[in-house]
Amino acid sequence: MIDDKKYTFLQKNVCVKFYSLTDYHVRPVVCAWERTSPRKYPVGPWKLTNYIVHFILDGEGVCYYENKKYVVEKGAIFAIAPGKTVSYMQNPDNPWRSIWIEINGADCGTLFEQSGLGSDVFVKTVSDYDKFAAMFLNAMNDGNLNEDPQGFIMLSNIYRIFAEIAAEFASSGSQKTIKTQLVEKIVDYIDKNYGNDISAGTIAKTFFVSPQYLSRIFRREIKMSPQAYLTSVRLSKAAEMLANGNFTISSISESTGFASPYYFSEVFKKKYLVSPAKYRAREQAAKKDR
Predict the structure, then answer these.
(1) What is the Cα gyration radius of the chain?
(2) pLDDT tens per residue across span 20-72
(3) Of 10, 15, 31, 134, which sees the most CB atoms within 10 A?
(4) pLDDT tens-digit series, residues 9-29
């Protein structure tokens, strides 16, 4: 049973914002409490810019993301990674009440992954409602009652909450699957965008992970750095164009994402041991002889 007298903020909606002056790898942004009004229509859609973790104190509703419907009810951890466009809809007969925490920073993706929350939308009910309710209520209470503009107190609450989430939902097998899925998404992104002005740094930003973490999981999963994989894809596509067309070296260089024809030729020769022009002549001559 929730003690409304102990947690006075339950009497109204409360949103506590933090203003960190330090570039922490995990930064609290908002801790908020909401008593929702009954709605018969979805709220949103909106695109999220921070990592968000809700705990549903009571009530129920649904979340919509990419034509999928997630049922959210009492005792659920409801987490969403940034970049996702979602909408919510309360059960008008039993609208949810929730406390949520928003965080950002370079290590938030790792924090979500290692705690088992993944990189999309996560909805699961906890096994010990009272324990999780107390943690979120105390975090909200601390943020509401204490002068904590840098978020030091809130950060300690966040790590405790994530430690319990990890104990509840994470496993070595699930972590491996999540990492593999992330690498697969990044590989697909590179395969579709190799011709654009992208790099390992911009890829890390796109997927809300740190460059160091991106490099680590890439090396483990496909045995090369993300930049090396990107260069390999570009060179492979360039080789196809050389063998199957009469495109200029300059146009091939530009369409495969290289900074200049000179740099493209230099990198191409290191891999194929011949210049792009000689490679084209060799491959097209071989085709005629077949």
Answers:
(1) 25
(2) 545 567 888 887 877 666 666 677 788 888 999 999 999 998 999 888 899 99
(3) 31
(4) 566 666 666 555 455 678 888
* DSSP string covering the chain: ---TTTSGGGGS-EEEE----S--SSEEEEEEEEEPPP-SS-EEEEE--SEEEEEEEE-EEEEEETTEEEEEETTEEEEE-TT-EEEEEE-TTSB-EEEEEEEESTTHHHHHHHTT--SSEEEEE-S-HHHHHHHHHHHHHHHHHS--TT-HHHHHHHHHHHHHHHHHH--HHHHHHHHHHHHHHHHHHHHHHTTSS--HHHHHHHTT--HHHHHHHHHHHHSS-HHHHHHHHHHHHHHHHHHH----HHHHHHHTT-S-HHHHHHHHHHHHSS-HHHHHHHHHHHHHH-
How many residues are present in the chain? 290
Rounded alpha-carbon distances, angstroms, from residue 255 to 77, 152, 206, 261: 45, 48, 21, 11
Q: Give Cβ neighbours of residue 208 (< 8 Å, ≥ 6 apart).
A: 51, 81, 82, 83, 108, 109, 119
